[in-house]
Amino acid sequence: MGPRIGPVGEELQVPDKDAKAMVGTEDTPGSKASPNPQKLRPSVFHSIKFFVLCHSLLQLAQLMISGYLKSSISTVEKRFGLSSQTSGLLAAFNEVGNTALIVFVSYFGSRVHRPRLIGCGAILVTLAGILMTVPHFISEPYRYDRTSPDMPQDFEASLCLPSTKALASASSNSSCSSYTEARHLAVVGIMFTAQTLLGVGGVPIQPFGISYIDDFSHNSNSPLYLGILFAVTMMGPGMAYGLGSLMLRLYVDIDRMPEGGINLTSKDPRWVGAWWLGFLISAGAVALAAIPYFFFPKEMPKEKQELRFRRKGLAVSDPPVSKGEDSSSEQSPADSPEKKDNLAQIAPDLTVIQFIKVFPRVLLRTLRHPIFLLVVLSQVCMSSMAAGMATFLPKFLERQFSVTASYANLLIGCLTIPLAIVGIVVGGILVKRLRLGPVHCGTLCLLSALCCLVLSTPLFFMGCSSHQIAGISHQPGAQPGLELFPGCMESCSCPSDDFNPVCDSSSRVEYITPCHAGCRSRVVQEGPDKSQVFYTNCSCVAGGGPVPAGSCDSACGHLVLPFMILVSLGAALASVTHTPSFMLILRGVKKEDKTLAVGIQFMLMRVLAWMPSPVIHGSAIDTTCVYWAHSCGRQAVCRYYDHDLLRNRFIGLQFFFKTGSLACFALILAILRQQDKEERTKATIPNPGLQQQLLASEAKKEPEESRV
């Protein structure tokens, strides 16, 4: 364990190896070129820079497959009839398996081949992504109108006809069989299982990769490498949203299109895109990124030895000096008696049962560190904000500004994610270039969190109220649901669970179906690109129509770009805090405890942020629903929301988490300044014992000088 964690043994192996390679050749003319062939063979997989590149690509692909579900969360809700709370639980369920096993990272971290274990985890992530697509293949083709088993009769089934009631009841009875419900439960169970395996596969990737980079990279280069790693990693969600934007433009059953095609466009609220296709593409990317990890060594030379070797012609006297400094500085913690109390040191001598018994005590001891605890809490708040935003921001844009799911993902992938990458890079560069100490890192985090909070305030006012929907109550204190219509549709037998909205653009009133608008006929206008459906002879519409199919557009759709600009700027400022806060943890704990500290950090972030935050946001969104769809007697997907409540509660949760992060950074800065002040005070006040020794030595010198 000592030679693996302490870089002393690792650094001394490289010169010995080089010396053996140059024995007998140092006096020959070709002595300079002789070691090159031996150094070129292991150079690729023994380079920490190449490992940073490979790990960045792997985490990019891993977050792409994880973020893809978030980009298509509203589509999955419509396809399988899920509430926002259930979909939020599904999005957070990959953290369950991850959290259950992340505790053992510090135990196995001292025993296993870290790169090889990362590759095995990536293979499991690939299998989980493939399993996520199984519900599409075992489900029946999607029917966007449940009242009719024959899709060409979709629009006729929604008209105001006396026979519609009998048709709807017959279709409802045939579709709500025990087999259908069992298949629905099986589909949901498969998705939850796939999410669990996705989390289990991701257990070794981040903690082992980060500790591996920090162990074998130069201390001054570690912040830049981590900044590059996090920046490239953030491209994963961006690519996931971009992939979702492309896939959701395709119809869900593109592999089994019905005869005669479909009569839907991507703007129709009943449209369901090919959500499953992105999982296959992402799984293939993860599988390719996992290949190099089976060729990396368990240990590699420390990077500063390689940098010193490249410039040894310029400074020949550097190696002995640095060697002495390194040995004196790096052997001191290894020889310290406190090392015996570290879990990373005693873990190789413990069994799994003993490790489980020891871990709570070590966990509590680590959490007593005030800086570590506050930094983790601030990251928990930031992660809660990011988890809720990443999961439900596409759906929020769809509902609040009447944009398609594809366009919402495109905005997030082109604005929010790139600016967040810029924020991470800026944070890493500032730490490295300015050589920021702990106090300055805390100041940078505090200022960034404060500016992020200020930019969130205008978001409360960037939106508009819901347009009027006939038959749905919006009055305060009234129960949401269908109201009694006037006599305009008394002769119609409209099914209560049908959904085929039409919009009266003159009065901006939306009807759940053409039947609820009293429409008795329809007209299809063929266009060069697509056909447009209109309903006529509508008894509930002034003039009888015609009214176009589809929901009414939002009156504040022009605010979507300013809204996204503010959200993206806030994400960039929040991302600036990522690398400085992470360096506070890495530089605040002992070197042999880095793996354990990183494991505890990720465990707490998953337990306190990534697991509950999507469920909290989903539950808050469900409380703003005013009209639920029902499937076989159970509550399914929400059809309409109160836009004002949706905006205030969704943005309010974001504001709450940003405020908590700001408070944590303020406490961190106060503690760091107090510690810095105490250190300066100790440095200015001399030690009384040392002062007495100096006085005694001066008293002895005085008689000698007098004799001279």
UniProtKB/TrEMBL annotation:
Locate the compositionally biased regions of type Basic and acidic residues.
698-708
Q: What is its main location?
A: membrane
GO BP term, example: transmembrane transport
Q: Does the keyword Transmembrane apply?
A: yes
Question: What are the alphabetically sorted keywords of the record?
Answer: Cell membrane, Disulfide bond, Ion transport, Membrane, Transmembrane, Transmembrane helix, Transport
* Family to which this protein belongs: Belongs to the organo anion transporter (TC 2.A.60) family.
Q: What is this protein called?
A: Solute carrier organic anion transporter family member
Q: Which organism is it from?
A: Bos taurus
Instruction: Identify the gene encoding this protein.
Output: SLCO2B1
